[in-house]
Amino acid sequence: MERVDYDRQQHQAYVEGRRLSPDTISTWMGAFARHLRPERPLAVIDLGSGTGRFTPALADTFGGPVHGVEPSTRMRAIAEASAPHPAVTYVAGSAEAIPLPDGSCDAVLLFLSFHHVVDKAGAAREIARVLRPGAGGLGAGQVLVRSTFTDRMPDLLWHRWFPRARSVEMDMFPTVDETVDLFAPTGLRPLAVDRVPHRMAADLAEYVARLRLRAVSTFEHLTEDEIAEGFAAMDREVAAGTLTDGPVETDSDLLVLGGLPSP
What we know:
With about 260 residues, this protein is α/β, with parallel strands linked by helices. The chain has nine helices and seven strands, in the order ααβαβαββαβααβααβ. It has a seven-stranded mixed beta sheet with strand order 3-2-1-4-5-7-6.
């Protein structure tokens, strides 16, 4: 599957199209905190930080420093302009080439970014390299992988209007076991798969308006005819008033890996 170039188009509408409410960000910070050690501060890498929608909150929650590592020049520029924080530094880099020293971080977050990585095995080695190892085989550093996993694919409202989107995402995302197997050679092992409630929009109108911005990388793999037909189907169903209004929510998966032993 062709890699999505966020510098070409996706960056233009990403901030608005993927905006999260303060309550949703707080829910995710609580989920991350459940799996990280309680000491503060923690040094965190937001790997594939995009426009920085989580990066400042990570600094507020865990004390920083937080490194937003992002390969897209335009996404990173938006983050620097719209999501600054005194404990946050945005840097050019990728999962396969993290510009930080060995053993320098307590946690690495990949929030809907791991599926974009080309060399996933190489990325797993690089993530293990920058994580802080633990004494006695108990790793201090942990990896938080928020992803769609094809063996746990949720039923999403927008898939009913864009039916091939689900099959695209089945090809795009890994399974839980595939992800675990990629990290196994590094010594990182699965600690938990947490199910986290995620509010996508406050109501149906907001959900539809954001969907029109096409700030989901799956759209890059659909034809313009498919997209036009999908939005027409969406408009017909919205106009018919058959959809339940109110918050649009789904359950999201968070895979936690850790246990990196001391060298």
